[in-house]
Amino acid sequence: MSETRTRKPGTPGKFSRWMQVRAGARAVRKIRGGRARMMGMDMLVLNTVGKRSGQPRETALTWFPDGDDGWLIVASGGGSQNPDWYANMMARPERVSVEMPGREAVPVTPRRLDGGELDTAWQRIAEAQPRYAKYQSKSDRRYPVVRLTRR
């Protein structure tokens, strides 16, 4: 008799996680090659360092402009929990950088938004990409929004 493991709703299984890793690696290659749009959204590569492992990590993410010097990213993580990149970034904020299409990495400082800043940023994000608002409405938690600025 095999043991069945249960996982939180919205938490990817092994196959889903494998597909996410493969798709993420492909997206990173495309961004580095100068192509940076997915489903009508701009993409960047977020470079972090593993919270526990200390190993370099790279994640392709959508982003939204925030003034002349900032980028907004959303830590949706499949709905039920914050993504690993978010935990890594917040644990080692001094080791975070971003790569825009075909450009070198730029060191950035991440700052989680809250209060009125979060509300304003979320409104802009939801207007730019209504799918984020729809996705958020299906989750029991509020997605963190992080502002990245050049360091």
Automatic annotation (TrEMBL):
SUPFAM superfamilies: FMN-binding split barrel. It comes from the Bacteria. One of its GO terms (cellular component) is plasma membrane. GO terms for molecular function: coenzyme F420 binding; oxidoreductase activity. Gene3D superfamilies: Electron Transport, Fmn-binding Protein, Chain A. This is Nitroreductase family deazaflavin-dependent oxidoreductase. Belongs to the F420H(2)-dependent quinone reductase family. InterPro entries: F420H2_quin_Rdtase, Split_barrel_FMN-bd. Pfam families: F420H2_quin_red. It catalyses: oxidized coenzyme F420-(gamma-L-Glu)(n) + a quinol + H(+) = reduced coenzyme F420-(gamma-L-Glu)(n) + a quinone. It comes from Amycolatopsis suaedae.
